[in-house]
């Protein structure tokens, strides 16, 4: 599962004249801005939204946003963990020289209100995420201007925020956590697969270091389980 170290730049050069300013607007309440709009809205996903949006959309584009790094620093006590054993999911960290790849979904008409209402529960109420508008750069070569997109970001102020930890510690926590949406391992591996197959020119050292740490731990767990089964099946000699 190692990546090829020789690859192009993670973030292509931006177009010479961006459509938007470099500043992002935020909504501290967690309510999606533009909830009353009927015009087309773009929603950027960088975690489970890349493979399971959960809402109807008109089109989708793979691409990236600038100024943020993806980190497994947000706790999850519902989707991929529990109150007793929180899982680890991704959020965005402001980082001037970085970018984060994901998928932007276009919603139109009745899709707008329905998708924002759904995401408000999934991301804000249950996840602790706030909303911002950011510039999204599509992967297509003919895309000359960025798109204004809504993104959900979990800040350090939310009660589920866990903060930094080593890749090994994060992997160990992911291995033992699961929630209503499934096991935390699935979350990590699906996100890694998305990057591997849809963004092969990009690199995410944090993500793939955790994946590598997880795969190095799992054989130890499998070995222990097999050893216990073998031990249980072997007749024990009576003590004389």
UniProtKB/TrEMBL annotation:
<keyword id="KW-0053">Apoptosis</keyword>
<dbReference type="GO" id="GO:0006751">
    <property type="term" value="P:glutathione catabolic process"/>
</dbReference>
<dbReference type="Pfam" id="PF04752">
    <property type="entry name" value="ChaC"/>
</dbReference>
<keyword id="KW-0834">Unfolded protein response</keyword>
<dbReference type="GO" id="GO:0005794">
    <property type="term" value="C:Golgi apparatus"/>
</dbReference>
<dbReference type="GO" id="GO:0061928">
    <property type="term" value="F:glutathione specific gamma-glutamylcyclotransferase activity"/>
</dbReference>
<comment type="function">
    <text>Catalyzes the cleavage of glutathione into 5-oxo-L-proline and a Cys-Gly dipeptide. Acts specifically on glutathione, but not on other gamma-glutamyl peptides. Glutathione depletion is an important factor for apoptosis initiation and execution. Acts as a pro-apoptotic component of the unfolded protein response pathway by mediating the pro-apoptotic effects of the ATF4-ATF3-DDIT3/CHOP cascade.</text>
</comment>
<feature type="compositionally biased region" description="Basic and acidic residues">
    <location>
        <begin position="1"/>
        <end position="10"/>
    </location>
</feature>
<dbReference type="GO" id="GO:0003839">
    <property type="term" value="F:gamma-glutamylcyclotransferase activity"/>
</dbReference>
<keyword id="KW-0456">Lyase</keyword>
<dbReference type="GO" id="GO:0006986">
    <property type="term" value="P:response to unfolded protein"/>
</dbReference>
<keyword id="KW-0963">Cytoplasm</keyword>
<dbReference type="GO" id="GO:0006915">
    <property type="term" value="P:apoptotic process"/>
</dbReference>
<keyword id="KW-0333">Golgi apparatus</keyword>
<dbReference type="InterPro" id="IPR013024">
    <property type="entry name" value="GGCT-like"/>
</dbReference>
<feature type="region of interest" description="Disordered">
    <location>
        <begin position="1"/>
        <end position="32"/>
    </location>
</feature>
<keyword id="KW-0914">Notch signaling pathway</keyword>
<dbReference type="GO" id="GO:0007219">
    <property type="term" value="P:Notch signaling pathway"/>
</dbReference>
<comment type="similarity">
    <text>Belongs to the gamma-glutamylcyclotransferase family. ChaC subfamily.</text>
</comment>
<dbReference type="InterPro" id="IPR006840">
    <property type="entry name" value="ChaC"/>
</dbReference>
<protein>
    <recommendedName>
        <fullName>Gamma-glutamylcyclotransferase</fullName>
        <ecNumber>4.3.2.7</ecNumber>
    </recommendedName>
</protein>
<dbReference type="GO" id="GO:0007399">
    <property type="term" value="P:nervous system development"/>
</dbReference>
<dbReference type="InterPro" id="IPR036568">
    <property type="entry name" value="GGCT-like_sf"/>
</dbReference>
<dbReference type="GO" id="GO:0005829">
    <property type="term" value="C:cytosol"/>
</dbReference>
<keyword id="KW-0524">Neurogenesis</keyword>
<feature type="compositionally biased region" description="Low complexity">
    <location>
        <begin position="19"/>
        <end position="29"/>
    </location>
</feature>
């Amino acid at each position: 599962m190692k990546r090829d170290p020789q690859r192009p730049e993670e973030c292509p050069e931006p177009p010479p004249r961006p459509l938007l300013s470099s500043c992002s607007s935020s909504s501290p309440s967690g309510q999606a801005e533009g909830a009353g709009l009927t015009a087309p809205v773009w929603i950027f996903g960088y975690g489970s939204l890349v493979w399971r949006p959960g809402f109807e959309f008109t089109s989708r584009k793979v691409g990236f946003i600038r100024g943020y790094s993806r980190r497994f620093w947000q706790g999850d006590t519902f989707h991929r963990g529990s109150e007793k054993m929180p899982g680890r999911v991704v959020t965005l960290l402001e980082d001037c020289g970085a970018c984060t790849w994901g998928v932007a979904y276009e919603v139109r008409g009745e899709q707008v209100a329905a998708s924002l209402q759904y995401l408000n529960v999934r991301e804000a109420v249950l996840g602790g995420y706030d909303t911002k508008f950011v510039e999204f750069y599509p992967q297509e070569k003919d895309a000359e201007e960025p798109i204004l997109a809504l993104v959900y970001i979990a800040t350090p102020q939310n009660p589920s925020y866990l903060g930094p930890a080593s890749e090994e510690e994060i992997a160990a926590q992911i291995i033992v956590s699961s929630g209503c949406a499934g096991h935390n391992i699935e979350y990590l591996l699906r996100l890694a697969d998305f990057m591997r197959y849809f963004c092969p020119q990009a690199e995410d050292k944090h993500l793939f270091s955790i994946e590598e740490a997880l795969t190095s731990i799992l054989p130890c767990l499998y070995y222990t389980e097999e050893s216990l089964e073998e031990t249980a099946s072997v007749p024990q000699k009576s003590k004389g």
